[in-house]
Amino acid sequence: MSFPIREFQPMSVSDERSDTPPPGLIPDAQLILGIELFISGLNHTGPRSAEENLNQIIQNLAAASQPLPDLNVVSPNSINVDYVYVSLKDTCLHQNPQPDVLETIRDILDQQQGVCAHWRMAKSADKARQLFFVTDSKSEATLLKPRLDTIFQAEHYNVQSVWISDAGWITYHFHLTTAIDNLMHTYLIVDGHSCIPRRPRFVQPIFGLEIAINGVGDYPQAHTLINHYIQDTYGPQFGSDVVRRSHIMLDRNVYCTVLKNPAVTCLLLSEEFNLFKNKPRFTSSVPTWQPNYLYNLNIQGFPTTTLSF
After folding, report:
1. For 37-119, CATH number?
2. CA 239 – CA 91 distance, rounded (Å)
3. What is the CA radius of gyration of the chain?
């Protein structure tokens, strides 16, 4: 019994709250960017344990008459982590990515005991379980890290990985989000100095090919305005419900949307977006960016803003 290949199924229309369309539709050379799942909660006793654990789950599903298509299951590095990246292996699907197929796979895997399946948000490790500390230099960060390690060990906050940047940032990747929640409400004192934990700014994708527009916070009606703009612009060609899901995220400054199909997604990305060109702004801290894949914006990072209207 093989996995059935079907026509593209648009995401359902709802108000509840990754990347290549078929050849000829893509506005640039970014192939399969973001059409990938992030599967966590797996065995992490060894460098390949997570990969082996997921492959066993896939075999068990096939034995239970719930086969999945051929998948690329990739461990991110040689350290013990509880996650892997998953993408479609089939050549046809690879050339004509169907995020709806991966969404079906994501839903199936997310229902397996202990497994958490999300769309991969960026090429880096899981930002949802990261905290970082900023110091003045790499040497200062190197001295601070062992002290932070001791605190986290005492509190039983299991760390998957940690690294220090040349700029002096210490980034911790934890196993559980509860460690993040607790530390964000903890006043850390190390050698008489306060250490402020910071979280990366990101938006978790809800579907492949998700689009984001940053810098819409100056416009109180941005959500409605953009939805109507997209429908009015592309509705004559693609029909009703061009916008399948849409939300305003990150202090109301980022508009995110999943559109009807890859073709309209590529048109929105390739054409000039002038909706707010002649509209007055309340501030000028974050200019309105052109539409881009949410995956790309998660890589670039979202600036912190303070809105005042």
Report:
1. 3.30.70
2. 30
3. 21
14 CB-contact burial (10 Å; exposed 0-12 / middle 13-18 / buried 19+): exposed
Q: Which residues pair with 39 in a beta bridge?
A: 84, 117
DSSP state of 4: P
What's 127-195's CATH class? Answer: alpha beta
CB 203 within 8 A of CB 212: yes
Instruction: Let me know if the fold of 37-119 is the same as that of 127-195.
Output: yes
240-255 per-position pLDDT tens digit: 999 999 999 998 999 9
pTM summary value: 0.83
Q: From CA 33, how far away is CA 208, in angstroms rounded?
A: 9
Q: Kindly report, residue by residue over 30-71, the tens digit of the pLDDT.
A: 445 678 999 999 999 998 999 999 999 999 999 999 999 889
- The ranges assigned to domains in the chain are 37-119, 127-195, 211-300
